[in-house]
Amino acid sequence: MNPKMFKLLRWTAAGAVLGTAGLVMVAADDDVKSPFQAFDKAYYLSEKDAQFIRPGLRFELSNPVAATDGTVSVDVKITDPRGAGLDRLGIDTPGTIGATFVIARIPRGETKYVSYITRIDGPSPTSGRRETQATGENNGTWTPKGNGNYTYTFRNRLPTGYDRTVTHTIHLYGNRNLTEFDLGTDTADTVINFVPDGSPVTVVRDIVPQEACNRCHGQLTAHGTTGRRSVAGCITCHTPQTVDAGTGNSADMAIMIHKIHMGRDLPSVKAGTPYKWEANQNRIVDFSHIGYPPGPSPNVGTRACETCHYNSSQTPPAGLEQRRNHLNKPTRADCGSCHDNVNFATGANHAGIIQLNDNSCSRCHIAEGELELDVSVKGAHTIMRANGGPGGWFTQQLDGLRFTIDRVTNSQPGQRPTVQFTAKNFRGLSIPMAQIDRLALNLIERRGADNARFWSEDPRATAQCAQDGTCLYTFTQAIPADARGTWSVEIEGYRNKVIFPGTEKQVTVGDAGLAVVREFGVTDATPVPRRVAAEYAKCNNCHLQMSFHGDNRNLLDSCTSCHNPTQTDIARRTAAQQPAESINMKEMIHRIHLGAGNQREYTLYGRGGPVNFNQVVMPMGQQQLAQCETCHRPGEFNLPTEQGLLPTNDPRNPFFTTVPPGTGACLSCHQSQFAAAHAKLNTDPQLGESCLVCHGPNSTYSPARVHAR
Q: Model-level pTM?
């Protein structure tokens, strides 16, 4: 008998015998909506299998007790996402469940945790050192109470005379092994705060919200499939007492996270000292190549504190005051984690000021001063880009630039289209053409959902503008006689502004407008909207305010005017650097985010020279590449069904130099010769691709299903 079938029969029998502890226990949930989404493998289970396996994992802690003799216990409830109890041993319900417990306290007068349970790491094969590290335990006593309920008693006791009046926190993390059902490993964690003497909890540590991490990381997780996935849990181990034996680097959460996200921009890294960690099994992890996503603009970069921290100078809601600590309570450790060339003991790179403790940090570095770019915390991190509204970390010294395209006339084949547009500041005042340093109107040919040919013209010299700011510009380029369907016009540009002129802080900032795209019918009576696969707002989850090429290209539709199937980077390459790379949006973006996973060298040549993307790492590593919804709109990760899509011109591709449209999207990540052969065998020169037969949205191997996790 198949081993998996044998286990199914064994558990079915167990459920029949155990009643409320087995299958009968979950029968009342039959009509509950599935808690899983299309990118979860469990979503595709049959109803019968889903009822039996009950995939997923949730932990809940209650009734923590720390006795005067140091014995600690806590009630644990283990369930699936619908609330049905699970057997941690995997006997009554499928899947063994592993669990680890951490217990830590916030000492009186302090703000960071100290773990009660520690280990000695080392000796390191790199340095020979041994270091103390916070850790947890999994060898305590479990007392079953039925229906997924347990009491866990710690093996480690708290020390004699421990302070019973301060906040204690128990962090539980773990996993459920469902690999035998091809469902992988489910993970979960949770925390509970309490004061052993029964007093209410008044002191907590809540600096960065979980959702801030998850905006970029999807579901934050670390240390493989152990289940450590919450900020509240991470900070119970990543304390000042934890040090990496291999490098001597602190694992304190604030220091470590700042340094990891700074990566290649750390002064120490720029000076030649890599930022490394000696991880489990002595594996060296180097973060020196990490590029913070809110780049690439030098006006954003690692100044974007608001990506993780509270994002304005306004008072946060009651109970969340600590989320302003980065403004109100600067420390040498936290600030020095990014500015790691500062020597507080000698005053080097600190204006000669010696700082032996944190007592006076906020005297100079107040939360917010009167001027941007001053030494206040907010001022020093001002982002030199307009965001069009009050508050936040963006500069308020730019008037802003807003475009509209109101209509397009003379839009028939053979005609020269006339565009009515406006350029105004944030107050609604029109901006004369002479005051705009760059302005472009792009005429773009559409082929289905793809863009093809485009022409760019500067309207500033000949546009006819009225007093209300309405301008008319007629292209010198006529719409070709063979044009069909729907085309579009895009406007983009910026004007330069000098901030703090005549002072040491003088800086010239490009005040870029948000690009605007307007579609118009050439032969279509009504313009047909272009299918948009990704969302600009989702880009900004990681990139804060995504823009490229001098901040001009700041809208996905504006990017695709140039980054279309016909274009390569050949114009920026010498003869010795041929062949060229495609810069079509779908292939390029997939390959950039694939980064270190590319099976060939991936370098693009632009105006600033060559840029190699082989060291790019997604925030959650390569596993995040399968989470298509991170970037894509719901359902728009499916293969396109439109007719007339263009093949991609990809001279450097080792398998296809002319890549069919569906194949281009898939092979940009799946780069093996086997994948290329599969695509070629299922593509006919006359009839095209047959991808939709197997990989259609409702097919067995749909993109959502094959990428499910």
A: 0.89
